[in-house]
Amino acid sequence: MRICLRYAKNKDEAVEMVNDGFMKVFMNMSKYDNQRSFNAWLSTIMINTSIDCYRSRIRKIEMEELNAKHEVEDSENILSHLNYEDLIKLVQKLSYAYRTVFNLFAIDGFSHEEISEMLSISVGTSKSNLFKARENLKKMLTETPNPSLQKINY
């Protein structure tokens, strides 16, 4: 559920992703390799299910205009200053494209090349979406009424 919540817009959508993910787990249980960690296998399925949901929804919404010239800034890691629940609430406010790239890069550790392949987008689009996701998160952090979140410096 934690993985799907990061990618979902809200809890209901996350529940739908979890259900789809467990359906894939049960349908592919014979493909599970006992030499591998079950948690890692399950996490991979939930991430891929979330990406599949992204792909199906992204076709229905209009993509933001992207500028491939944006360079991703190496600013202080905002994740180190937020507790998990606060981060999830902010990330869920991002658009589908921004939320998905942010999760894959910042939280799940995928490279822009891997993200571009997974989502069928260019590397520049991945970098641009990450840049814009970070900018939106910074803006949300400065506008939030929660005093513990306002103490973060950039």
TrEMBL record:
Keyword flag Transcription: yes
Keyword ATP-binding appears in the UniProt entry: no
Any GO MF annotation of the entry: DNA binding
Gene Ontology process terms (BP): DNA-templated transcription initiation
Top-level taxon of origin: Bacteria
Domain RNA polymerase sigma factor 70 region 4 type: 85-137
Annotated keywords: Sigma factor, Transcription, Transcription regulation
Gene3D superfamilies according to UniProt: 1.10.1740.10, Winged helix-like DNA-binding domain superfamily/Winged helix DNA-binding domain
NCBIfam families (UniProt xref): sigma70-ECF (TIGR02937)
Family, as annotated: Belongs to the sigma-70 factor family. ECF subfamily.
Protein name: RNA polymerase sigma factor
Organism annotation: Pedobacter frigiditerrae
Lineage start: Bacteria, Pseudomonadati, Bacteroidota, Sphingobacteriia, Sphingobacteriales
